Amino acid sequence: MPLKHAKTKKWTCILAVLFTLHTVSTVGLMYNQSYFMYGIDLGIVVLFAILIYKMLIVKDSYAINLEQEILNHQETYAELEANRIKLQNIFDSIDVAIWSHNLKTNKLLITSGIEKLYGYPLQAFYEDAELWKKVIHPDDDEIIMNRGIAIQNGQITTSEYRIMKPNGEIRWIQDRGIPFLDADNELVDFNSILIDITERKRAEITIEHMAYYDELTGLPNRNGFMQMIEKQIKEADLQNRNLALMYVNLDRFNVLNDTLGHSFGDLLLQKVAELLKVTVGYYGTVFRRSGDEFLILLNFKEISEIKQKAEQIIQAFTKPFKLSGQEVFTTPSIGISTYPGNGSDSETLLKRADSALYQAKEKGRNTYQFFTEQRDSKMERRLTLEHGLRKALTNNEFFLVYQPLVHIGNKKILGVEALLRWKKEDEGMISPAEFIPIAEETGMILPIGEWVLREACLQGLSWREQGFSDLLISVNISVRQLLEESFIERIESILSETEFPPTSLELEITESTTMQNMEEALPILNALRAKGIRISVDDFGTGYSSLTYLRHLPVDTLKIDKMFIDDILTDSKAGAIVKTIIDMGHNLDFSVIAEGIETGEQINFLVEQGCIYGQGYNLYKPLHADELQRQLHKNVVMS
Q1: Are 593 and 557 a contacting pair, CB within 8 Å?
Q2: Distance CA 230, CA 421 (A)
Q3: What is the C-alpha separation between 632 and 464, in angstroms, rounded?
Q4: What is the pLDDT of residue 593?
């Protein structure tokens, strides 16, 4: 437009000059009618005509250019409008809403997807910009408060909270807020992306419930117990309170179960669970540990309170249980340990309550016993084993066996798990289930674990030199080893000393103990993973894993615990759990290994569910190094 005005001004000036000259020449002719003056006047008229002609041409050219420019603008507008409609259609077709608020101009833009998420009309949010906050579940107010603080500080924040729709339905929303601050760090613009994550949350809650609650009785299970007792111990320390742990076992339950059938046994366990909950009341919490074993956590001031509650439980069992019209009698044996008197951690309290239960059984059952170290034969056994462990390394009493990790389809050996065995000098073979917990509690697991790792790497190197370079060596690591300050340096030293490649080493960590120490364990696991060492979660399904933790763990492999594999053919719920773990593992890009496979039917079930790796006696039992070497020549393609 400035160019147009400049040209108009130029033509106006020229016309004014010519008009002035023409007027002068006309006046001159009036006084002097010479040919010269006629010539000048005629020239001016000709110039005037030429100028008029050029002006008409320029005008037509400008009109043509203007018309073309208008046409271009129309095409651009049409294209922008088409893109806007396309983008709007995309937003309308997905369960996502976008909220944009310019705080300086107070201009608000909301996509129509918010209607589907919240159940309110779009206009309602324009009329009341606080409506989104008013429908948030009261229990999530703290989440919104913390979110608001982060937004004011300019932090991009992702929050998950519940909303209440007009029909009373509660939905979960994931809200990613993106703030913009000005030069004075004042919030001037805010954008938010809202997504409905209700189905994901429901799946997480279902998995959480499966992990922490017993399906048969509805009581918290052993995982729920471990979670609760750790919390109770911390609270007892802060409030200077005492805790009692009751270990309840039903007398001769196996006889009843075998005589009346498993369905009657399940009904009895359900009735027992109800009876214990009613008897304990608000004084404590009841858990089902496994089978016919129950745990009860109680707060107390005086020991007499615990005695009274134990007697009430025994008295409650004097009445028969009515199962499908039939009366059934059973009695409880109860072992009791106390905190802090009998131990400072959950594992010790559980073991000592178990020891007291053993004493109650010895006293004729249907009674209760407090833990007493003087009469505890198990404690004597423990001291004997502890003393033996301290000499076992020096006396070369330890050795390793190797259980193959197999591709189920073709039975090819892909790796081996190194398993520790102890042949005690004056007693013979000692079960790992008996001596390994003692080694962990006493700290002996540190030198023993270092010996295991070195021996496994040396053996692995020997097999590599024979051509089995793709063979994976897996070694179990206790949480006490993992959290040792120099653990990473020890691993590096052993790998350097044995010249065993880190990419062929896999460290197995147990799920429950690792999850209890997640903050300390995570950086160590990340450092190991960065060195190429594989990480495996052993006994998966028996611990504390949540999807949030599992998503952050640098894990390569999940190993499904044997307790689930045992029941996959007889218990539909066990089969469903195994299938869920397999699907979850694959979705998270983990390898999934089934442990404890003992039958061909179990293999068929696992293959149908997509699990292709396994361990167990049906495939291979743990083998000595020379026995395994013979199998490797048969079942591994040498490099």
Answers
A1: yes
A2: 31
A3: 11
A4: 92
